[in-house]
């Protein structure tokens, strides 16, 4: 199959959240199954052209955004797995410091930026003569690609055999804009209908993706169920209208990258069979944070976007409730400034037990995953969550709210049966984060049980090997259905 992955972020080039990890990893697994997979991304200023040997291709293309004609170039590089990556270069929309915004504030022209990107994707594949069987679109920023294929381009012979798949990484971000988006994006008003582009008299990019892609997926089975039933943030009806084509496929992580045995950022390497290095990592992290050093302290890590989704109200409350205990907290993140201020205020009041680092810092992230005893993730909702899987790979025990992908990956440790890989509480049922922390501390103090729990964590593997087959199956179903419809229409 020819597969084009279209996304607004991708490791190693540019990352805001877990979307980038998925888009950066899935293609190499699809390639190993024999598919021709290529990626297409915006060329943000933050992407280092020299580092990745990105070259400009000899095309000068244009698309319309509203009344403006926007010129762009296509850039190209190969990843270390030999996958072609195309970058859309346009100074007006992408040559700025942030990806979606700056200082926690979204850019005011994100509508135009991603209309441009979607149109540029479709122009680029034509120029490149790469006819995708599947265009796999990720999140609202690429939601108009399926829409163009089903409307303006439905009779375009180049895309005759092209189907689209739309993956929801987080339904909370939808790209919801005024109805005049129809004109800015160059659609026809006759397509402004509920089954196509209209959504409560507006244009919602995520809804376009969900309604008009040939299949829809999201990143865990439980989240797929939740967004259809109660957590779809307004998309429940749209999702239920095509419930048979909504797949829940759990993300995996790259165990070569998230590997305490080979990681260069951490104080000392370690593995499940040799945990001495993890103790050194804990000491190094305590020193880095200015905490008292000792194995007996219960050290919590958290690496996250500062966003209400991630349960920071609960975390901040816990920081104050657990004051004066032997617990230490290290938090790294960026995003919402109000959350950041509250965390920093707590750290100022309790500097010997709370350390807060702001910004995006991959190197420090590895140190926190490795040095912490536990990893906290009391998210209000979580489509999949990668951080809890990464924590497990480092033998760091997750404490999570029972929601979405956290339900699919973390099982409460039962000290009788010795099964389970973490601690789970349920906000919906009124269960309490602090109580769960205190229960987990009892196991932490019982070294025999804690060691078993750590072994269970190391043994919890969420590889891409299985998930990639589910994606392949979804693509095959979509292509099969298209061929079936074509035969049906002809006969
Ligand atoms: P989301 O996609 O909702 O942000 P995930 O848990 O799925 O959450 O993925 C988050 C990813 O981003 C993880 O790999 C995590 O380590 C990383 N991450 C988040 N914030 C930071 C940060 N400030 N510095 C480094 N890595 C971060």
Describe the structure concisely for a colleague.
Helix content is 37%, strand content 21%.
Strand order of the largest sheet: 3-4-5-2-1-8-9-12-13
Number of helices: 17
Shape: globular
Seen as an oligomer or otherwise, the chain set is: single chain
Q: Give the fraction of residues assigned to helices.
A: 25-40%
Radius of gyration: 23 Å
Molecules bound to protein:
adenosine-5'-diphosphate
**Integer tally of domains:** 2
CATH superfamily (homologous) name of the largest domain: Glycogen Phosphorylase B
Instruction: Give the strand tally.
Output: 19
Major sheet: 9 strands, mixed
The poorly predicted ranges are none
Structural class: alpha/beta
Report mean pLDDT, rounded to a whole number.
96
Amino- and carboxy-terminal Cα gap: 26 Å
Instruction: Could you tell me the CATH topology label of the largest domain.
Output: Rossmann fold
Name the beta content range: 15-25%
Assign the CATH architecture of the largest domain. 3-Layer(aba) Sandwich
Kindly provide the name of the CATH class of the largest domain: Alpha Beta
Structural overview:
This protein has 491 residues and is an alpha/beta fold. The protein folds into 2 domains: 2-252 and 465-490, Rossmann fold; 276-461, Rossmann fold. The protein is built from 17 helices and 19 strands. It has helices spanning 18-32, 91-94, 110-128, 144-150, 181-184, 205-212, 221-229, 236-240, 276-289, 312-321, 337-349, 362-371, 387-393, 404-409, 433-445, 447-459, 464-490, and strands spanning 2-6, 36-42, 55-65, 68-78, 84-89, 101-102, 105-106, 134-138, 163-168, 176-177, 203-204, 215-218, 246-248, 298-306, 327-335, 354-358, 374-377, 397-401, 423-425. It has a 9-stranded mixed beta sheet with strand order 3-4-5-2-1-8-9-12-13, with helices on both faces. It has a 6-stranded parallel beta sheet with strand order 16-15-14-17-18-19, sandwiched between helices. Helix 10 (312-321) links the parallel strand 14 (298-306) and strand 15 (327-335). Helix 1 packs across helix 17. The longest helix is centred in the C-terminal third of the chain and has 27 residues, at 464-490. The two termini are 26 Å apart. Residues 17-18, 21, 303-305, 332-334, 360-362, 365, 384-387, 390 line the site of adenosine-5'-diphosphate (ADP). Adenosine-5'-diphosphate is lined by residues 17-18, 21, 303-305, 332-334, 360-362, 365, 384-387, 390.
